[in-house]
Structure formats: structure tokens, C-alpha cells
Amino acid sequence: KYNKKTKETGLGILQIFAKTAEWLVGGQGYREYNVDDNPDLLHKPFINVYFGAAYLKWLTDYQNNQRSEEFVVRAYNGGTKKATHKSTLPYWRRYLAVIDALPSRKHGDAGPSGFHPTNPTSPGSNTNFTYWETRASPEDMEDMWNHSEVGKEWTKSKEERGKVRFSQDGEKRPYLSRGEMKAVAEIIVSKHFSSKGIKIPFVCAIADTVSMRFVNGTGKHLGILGVDYSTASWLNKELGYRAYKVDSQDDLTKPFVSMYFGVAYLVWLSEYEGQERSHQFIVQAYMKGPDQVDLEASCPLWLKFEQALSYYEESKKDSGSCIIL
Questions:
Q1: Last residue of some domain: 53, 75, 101?
Q2: Cα–Cα–Cα angle for 118, 123, 125, rounded to 5 degrees
Q3: 202 in Cβ contact with 324 (< 8 Å)
Q4: Which residues form the signal peptide (predicted)?
Q5: Global pTM value
Q6: Quick check: 232 pLDDT over 70?
Q7: What are the backbone angles phi and psi of residue 65, rounded to the nearest 5°?
């Protein structure tokens, strides 16, 4: 990489600037290697990774605030001032593309990235997985196995019928892969909303933005689509969406249930108060409520949604037309 202002060129496999390495030595106490007198040492892989990792560690706690993975990646490539600027967005997208291209694994496995235990309950293996079968009906599981992308993914990670594990993050929170998310959306839409012209990437991007694909949701948002119990109950009882039961909040931590009511709510919002709505309106209304929509003001949620949408397809720039109907 190249800094136009300082005319510095990144060195080594992690493209560290010499001045950054010198600052890490003098200002942050990383003195395992001394590069002050000889910046060319940064071309050596172990030295380069040492300073690259040190800089990443510093970025994760920039200004004493715990930073997101996206902030760290974009700041590493473009500087902290450009971490939210559009100029660093391509770095983040390339990073995600590389992550998705890595060999599939179930996070939480003790082995290396290519290791997939065939029997999670065997002695010494991780037994803290959440299983798909506890969150989906036999019919929905059969549809998942029959989905070409998911079938390949599960076969590759050596899943067994009746014992399919959710992926886990470092805190052992179960989440859906993007392939699994796409499959759930496709199955629900094809079975229950086929006449609505719904775009799968739109639905998946909503899920990415609201829940980060965590099975149980995040914060106050329940499930992968973040639909609260009162909304789901209203859709079920008042609007007639009864393909899935929603007897309690726990039902909304089931991916197919959350997806079903999430899509139903999107359909309702797309014609809110009898008007065909733009996808900017739908996104804001879904996340903040239809009474809180402000299409004139800058909306961080909209920017986050656009980034998520780019993971599933090239983002469409025409914000005036509805993307789902």
C-alpha cells in the first residue's frame, strides 16, 4: 500500500509502514525487534507479522473503544480517519471475499481450519454445539439438505443427518453461514411468498444488519430477522400468517420461524399505509419503526445495510424503487 501524503510505501507481507513500526517500538513498547536503524528488517516475515499484529491489536481498542472487525480492517488499510470513508469500503469487501473463500469449518472446533470432527460428542471433542434439529422441523431440515449449496457445505464439514451443528463464534454463539442464510430465505420465500417478487439478497442483507446472522439474535433483536414477539404475534393473529406457530419468544430463535415472520413484516412495510414504499423506507422502518423513518437525514443503518447487501449481490444504487416488489 502507498500513503500519498507521506509518500510511504508499505513493507512486507502485512504492508507495515516503517514509521508505524518505529512508533510501535518507541510509543507502545513493542521492542522484540528493533527496526529503527534498519527498516528493511520489515521484509522478514516474522518481524513483519509481529508489528502487523501489534498494530491490529492497537486498532481494536482505538481511543479506548472496542472496535468492530470492519473498523479494524478498514483502518488498517486506510488509516483511522478513513475507517468509515467510502474509499476504504473496497478493502472490507475484498477481506470478506477472502474470508468466504477459506475452507469451511465449524467455529469452535479445537483443530486447524481444515479439521471437521465427524462426531462432536466423541471423547475430547467440543460438545457445546447448538444443533439445527433443535431449531427446525424435519420438513425444513429435509429442504436444507436438498438445497444444493447447503448440501455441499454440510457434506464438506462432515455433518450427519440428525446432528447438524450451527457454526459458532469465539464466544460459542451459534450463527448461520451466508449459504445457510440464503437457503432459509429461498425456502421460505418460495413456499410462502412466491407471488410477492421478493429479492433474496434484500432479505439476507436485513438479517446481516439486524442480527449478524446469530441464531438467537443480538441485543433486543430476537432471531436472525430480529422480529419481536408482539410483531410476530400480530402478523400471526391479525394478518393471517399462520404457516409457523409463535407461542413464545423462544420460537423466534428458530431460523425458519424468524425468517417467515421477518419476510411477512417486510411485505407489510412495502405497502405501508397503502403506498408502494422505497427500499430505503422499508429498511429504516424495519429497524426503527415506520413512524421513525426520515429519508432526508443521513442514516447509518442504511449504510450498514448497503454494505451487507454487497455481500449477496452488487448493490443497486436506485433508492427510489422498491427492491422487493
A1: 101
A2: 55
A3: yes
A4: none
A5: 0.62
A6: yes
A7: -120, 130
**Do the Cβ atoms of 186 and 223 come closer than 8 Å?**
no
Say if residue 205 is in the same domain as residue 307.
Answer: yes
Instruction: Describe the crossing of helices 255-270 and 229-237 by its angle, rounded to 10 degrees.
Output: 70
C-alpha cell at 43: 521484509
Contacts of 239 (CB under 8 A, 6+ apart): 264, 268
| β-strand partners of 8 | 3
Give how many domains the chain has, as a whole number: 2
pLDDT in tens, 120-159: 333 334 558 899 999 999 999 999 999 999 999 999 999 9
**What is the per-residue burial (b if ≥16 Cβ within 10 Å, else e) of 20-56?**
bbeebbeeeebeebebeeeeebbeeeebbebbbebbe
- Residues 269-279 pLDDT 10s: 999 999 899 98
Distances (CA, A) of 28 to 10, 32, 48, 199: 20, 12, 16, 49
